[in-house]
Amino acid sequence: MQYRQKRSGKLSTVFVVGILVLCLVPLFLKTSSLTISNSFLQLNTIFLSILIEAIPFVLIGVLIAGFIQIFITEDHIRAWIPKNKFLAVLMSCVVGAVFPACECGIVPIVRRLIGKGVPLYAGVGFLLTGPLINPIVILSTYMAFGNNKEIAILRMGVGFAAALAIALVVSVLFKTNQLKNAKELQRSKTKAKKQPLVPRISEMFKHSIDEFFDMSKYLIAGAFVAAFLQTYVSTQSLLQLGNTQVQSTLVMMALAFVLSLCSEADAFIGASFRNVFPTTSILAFLVYGPMIDLKNTIMLLSVFKAKFVFVLFVLITSIVFLFVTLSSLL
Q1: Residue 304 pairs with which residues in a beta bridge?
Q2: Cα 201 to Cα 66: distance, rounded to the nearest angstrom
Q3: pLDDT tens digit string along 277-299?
Q4: Which of the four, 61, 103, 204, 324, has the lowest number of CB atoms within 10 Å?
Q5: Cα separation of 103 and 283, whole Å?
Q6: Is the pLDDT of residue 2 over 50?
Q7: Whole-angstrom Cα distance, residue 263 to residue 283?
């Protein structure tokens, strides 16, 4: 098992290094015999922009994950998390709603919390609301739509309700934490003993560095796939499919998944579709993207079992579609 994990880690590292060589090296080679196509330059631009957007949030995320690993004990977790499932999910969604985080940066935090003993369903509630309805996202949504309170309130209300429903369904379907390396995390958490402050801070940074390099591999892979699809799959052809409200909602959800935008900036892109699609479809774009997108899915697959990620994807897609559609009837 350990051999397979090491081999998988080496293959993923080789894959990521290959992506970086493919994308970056040609940009520094200025020879008359080398012609770089416009589409390749566009792919590079999108790829780098996704990385530049995401990496600061990943850095914040891994620092928090390192802090949790060293300073938060299982006793703390047991004291903070309510025994009642609904109250635990509700608390996790509320904490996520006030916690500024990107969908990439929140993955290492959730992994560390679940490894420390937070129930899976509470981790999912935090995972979904953190990038979606934190204060920065709501403010950017309000500004992007010309100081329109309605869209910002709808995004917050529908997103919170959907996250709550998804986490509750997860609490029924899954009884274990679904982490890929659960035993390894179990071993690491038993090592957290009382030490002087300075060595603990040093250990926190060591954990954060390890977490950063672990997560960055999958972030780079996800960013490349997202950039490739944005470059070579025509967005206009997708937009032409949105003739009815149902179709336009599904198209906007598909765009949110493929574009893999940072949740702090996606409202400005969503606002650009106001003259193309109805408000319901734009709301689906704003709610669905921060919960699940292409780069985030690849990062989730590195942390959780594939079956769980697939079920989570189906739950998010179906429940967001249902709740957004119902919101249009209000």
Answers
A1: 179
A2: 9
A3: 888 999 999 999 999 998 889 88
A4: 204
A5: 18
A6: no
A7: 13
In one-letter notation, the amino acid at residue 255 is L
- Could you tell me which of 13, 6, 320, 2 has the C-alpha nearest to residue 164? 320
Please say whether the beta carbons of 130 and 96 come within 8 A: yes
Whole-angstrom Cα distance, residue 325 to residue 320? 8
Q: Report the mean per-residue pLDDT for the chain.
A: 80
Residue 8 located in a structural domain:
no
CA triplet 51, 128, 73: central angle to 5 degrees?
A: 95
- pTM here is 0.79
Taking every pair of Cα atoms in the chain, the longest distance, rounded to a whole number of angstroms, is 68
Structure tokens at 12: 């993923």
Q: Where are the alpha helices (DSSP H) in 98-148?
A: 106-115, 120-129, 135-144
Provide the domain count of the chain.
1
**Does residue 93 surpass a pLDDT of 80?**
yes
* Residue 30 is assigned to a structural domain of this protein: no
**Is residue 208 situated within a structural domain?**
yes
pLDDT in tens, 113-136: 898 889 999 999 999 998 888 888
Q: What's residue 128's pLDDT?
A: 94
Q: Is 112 exposed, middle or buried (0-12, 13-18, 19+ CB in 10 A)?
A: buried
- Give the residue numbers spanning the domain of 77: 49-327
In a domain, 125, yes or no: yes
